[in-house]
Amino acid sequence: xxxxxxxxxxxxxxxxxxxxxxxxxxxxxxxADGRVVWDLDAYDFLRGADAPDTANPSLWxxxxxxxxxxxxxxxxxxxxxxxxxxxxxxxxxxxxxxIVIDPLISAETAAAAFALYTEHRGExxxxxMIYTHSHVDHFxxxxxxxxxxxxxxxxxxxxxxxxxxxxxIAENVFAxxxxxxxxxxxxxxxxxxxxxxxxxxxxxQTTSTGTVTLIAPTLEITHTGQRLTIDGVEMExxxxxxxxxxxxxxxxxxQHRALCTAENTSHTLHNIVxxxxxxxxxxxxxxxxxxxxxxxWGDQLDVVFASHHWPTxxxxxxxxxxxxxxxxxxxxxxxxxxxxxQGYTGAxxxxxxxxxxxxxxxxxxxxxxxxxxxxxxxxxxxxxGWYDANPANLWPxxxxxxxxxxxxAMGGRDGALxxxxxxxxxxxxxxxxxxxxxxxxxxDTDTEARELLADAFEQLGFGAENxxxxxxxxxxxxxxxxxxxxxxxxAGTSMAGALTVTQxxxxxxxxxxxxxxxxxxxxxxxxxxxxxxxxxxxxxxGVLNHRTVPELPGDVTVFELTRRSLIGLVTGRIDxxxxxxxxxxxxxxxxxxxxxxVGLLAPLDPGFSIxxx
Length: 613
Fold this sequence. Notes:
globular; 16% strand
């Protein structure tokens, strides 16, 4: 692998250290309880070392670039804090204060990064906070830098693309339990750091494990060409919905000749769908938006910077970088569709589709975060869905049922184990893992099968160029050997605090245990006092419907409360009986109807099994 790579090309190392101002002396970031949520020295084993046999040399190199932490000047007046989380935070200096772009995942890491900025650039009030898009690593640390009180007082504007709040909530609350559990595999945050363990995630090293927060936007960007001037800083925006996120935007600073591409470009092939789960992205739209980006500002820019990795300086280099990133996504899209129309399935295309040599020669098009393999399958999924048209795959058995049949067909447990061991001996780790998976799902107490499957996962992880694949394989191996690692990070109740009333009811609806609720018929009225709106919620046929109404029927129980009190009831921060006793919530009618509804909600399991039944 190393011999096939252009290791002589050191431009990225020059760019990753360009504009360096300072590193922090505070190397560990801790939460209020003393827990370390980020360790800036955790990856020191990467510094100056050649790739070991336990790591793909291309991914090792990417990790070495990502550990260049500190404060960096992009151009005079624009700075970045890198190495403090999966993402990068940028700070733009205005006439009297600063504009902060993408405040990382956790309040603790955001505060620590911003402290490094103020240490070297001085105390400056935050005039605006920009969320480039709706993923948690671009807003979760907001309360480490600003407060809701500052926003409510009009001291700070919070700017985001149209649809931001809906998509942020949909991803992090509606399906949040499953996504955060799967993210533990994707980012390997609970793994040890080391040459045979977690070495990075390609886009950044891993996710911080501090407090995730959210402050709702006060200003939405709605159209391409929209302009803002904040604290003397001019900005021009481009809407790019459906690209790397459902709600995302690029923007240009004409006074600095600097372009921020959010996460629409980075120094890796990104995901068309992430292995933690997400909406499938539109690779075709992604590419064409990048063409529009170049048409808008390609003749004007001097630097491209983004919310991950390091900038690219110089107009020619920057435009070439944008062009290559654009061509990469369009090639995957178009060639996958070409082969779909020739009758190939997603798995077949993923095994055979080569990338153009000119793209392969670029470091920033390598699959450190996304991969050609799972991106091809994502394009297939977007157009064709999960079914490959072969009737044999229309009604397959679920994992445990198919596992017992495979094991039996291979001659029982001993026969299947022999097949897996032969695959191991042949270095066919993919087949070893396939057979081992069935052995474990047929009997998860089989220690020998678990260990062999863990060994196969480990070898697949060691060979992976893709950081998220490596992490997934190594987390799987660890859980087979040592037990469930659970979910290392959670959005908690702070994220829930930004829910709209409609989203609160939607989040309840997705937790209703349908079969248990089939025969229940409940109607509850809600008067939200601080919004002057009235809602009727009805549970019927296992489905929770809700709508605003001008008047409530006379035969329903009515709860009167604020939006925040409603959220408190749903999250358990407010005890219903105590709230009704002290007047926080007033009720007319049978108050027990609320307990009946709550009793029909299914519990959440943030540590559900993945590599075992």
